[in-house]
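re the bet — no i am not wrong, look at it urself. input seq straight from the record:
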Amino acid sequence: MSKTETPLMRQYNQIKQKYPGTILLFRVGDFYETFADDAVLISKELGITLTKRNNGGDMTPLAGFPHHSLDTYLPRLVKRGHRVAVCDQTEDPAEAKAQKKKIVDREVTEIVTPGVNMSEKLLEHKRNNYACAIHWSGSTVGLAFSDISTGEFALSQISEQELHSFLQVIAPNEVLVSKKVKTELPEWLNQFVITLQEEWIYDYDYSYNLLVDHFKTHSLKGFGVDELNVSIVAAGALLHYVRENQRAALSHIRKLYAFENSGYMMLDASTKRNLELISTMQEGGSDGSLISILDETCTSMGARELRKWIMRPLKKLQPIRRRLNAVEMLNINHELRSALREELEQVGDLERLISRVCVGRANARDLQLLRLSLERITPIKALLQQSEDPLVVELRNELSTLIPLQEKIREAIVSDPPAGIRDGGIIKEGYSEELEEIRDIARNGKRYLTGIQQDLIQKTGINSLKLGYNKVFGYYIEVTNVHKDKVLDTFIRKQTLVNAERYITPELKEVEEKILSAEERMQSLELELFEEVRMYAAEFAEEIQANAHALALLDCLQSLAETAFQYNYCKPVVDDAQLISITAGRHPVVERTLPMGEPFIPNDIHLDTENEQIMIITGPNMAGKSIILRQTGLIVLMAQIGSFVPAEAAKIGMVDKIFTRVGASDNLAAGESTFLVEMNEAANILNNATGQ
């Protein structure tokens, strides 16, 4: 660091020291600038020209981009796994100059990380954005994961052997661990973005107190997690990280729940990859995966929930059968399903809308979308009255219309508000008497200005005389040089132009003061009134989150019913029998991707624990051997998420794990040949297989 560093660089370095491990985007005028190592990094990541800046005699690397390009460049940095701190100017440069300050005040207003962000530009609408914290205590692992964009917060306590499969299911965007275990982390964990935290954060007492303080409870017993000590440490570390980075109220995170690992089928990385559940092995995208076939959801909430269902098949009969029965009802009742789909298509992303409302990031359009979405609940509840299915009735009863909130937004916010909230034009006429009085002053003032202009034209005889405004002089009178000999004695010259002179008068300055103060107060009052409505909406966060959850489940059920109807799936029988019997089964993805007119040849599968435990399938390359294996795994998985299956008939005995070993692959970087990889995967299957 230079001893003679400039005031700007001194301020930058002071702020940078407070946020180690982040790229600091430093607002300088109309640009976000980075310096030193950050500049070198973003020039490579973003393809931005690297230059240098004089810093008291030293030349410091510099790279930046226009402030209006933040939404373009910030997502690119975060998606590459970087943590980014956005530092903005917190005072008007003109005011700083008037006070003879050498530099404007700046502070970090937002820290965005791969796992902690609320940006619509960064979030994928159809998947959750999880941050996950891990804490080891011997062979026990405590985990906590949260999607702050939806308010979900969960913890789980598992064995170390289950960790890999668990993370494959959650698929976190960022994993937090203590610096203490940095050298002991398993190599496979590097597939995730790892963020190291200080060791002191991983303390039970600190974590427990942090959690009860956030949830405003005396203990964690009400959440059913009080005895999960290792997980509580992870949950506290995660909440600490979220609070440090988000810098906003987290009132939308209202519940903490224990993720019961025992209730779901855990899928290892090989099975998830080979069955191509949410992405394909070759392309990596969702096209050609199971979710691309089953996803007929109408809402972002439903799409995210369906993704969870596919990645977390159920292992208990009652919830599986409840889902299957509800899907059957919607599959049979075409009119109900069609009408329900039409209503759901008009529902916004309530989970993320109310989250933005709670953290203070919602604009007027968000509130209107919230209202319009809530309005659809009344017709949805009316439609669901047609059904007596227990699960559908339960979900219908969970829906709340929240009429007072709808009316509040309808009364306060204009129907088509602007995107910004600081420039006015968002509060309806007649909502506030005080605002109407100020608006009247502003409008009458402008009319009075027109009157002044006409009066001056008559008095001077200058038809071309006009009134203008700029930030330097305020309102002024402009007279061309041809007519400047006609100006009145009351005119005070303020500026000389090439072809004209600009003047002011005492009367004009008096009107200006009234108008400008009214306009300034009008904007600030609109912002105050908007904040009142936003905070009022935030009070309904819990009910809105409950609505979002119920609508997401309904959307999943109708999606599975729609898929079953379109592709001629059958309702499977799921029970405790140790049997898999599939008549005329089909691969759900392959049959949809065959060339036009080419039929899929169905297959029968029968396996049990007594007489037919093993099937040996032979044939030449590309004969369909792996298709049969995959379709059997997919049909079992589909049945246990509550979906109909591609077959004429299917009876599925409850399965607790699915293993697949398909295709030839190697891992030469780790010294593993194709044969060794195959043997390792086969050993994994044999060592972890159970009676189910």
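see?? Residues 666-670 have pLDDT under 50 and may be disordered. told u. also The CA atoms of residues 145 and 213 lie 19 Å apart. so pay up
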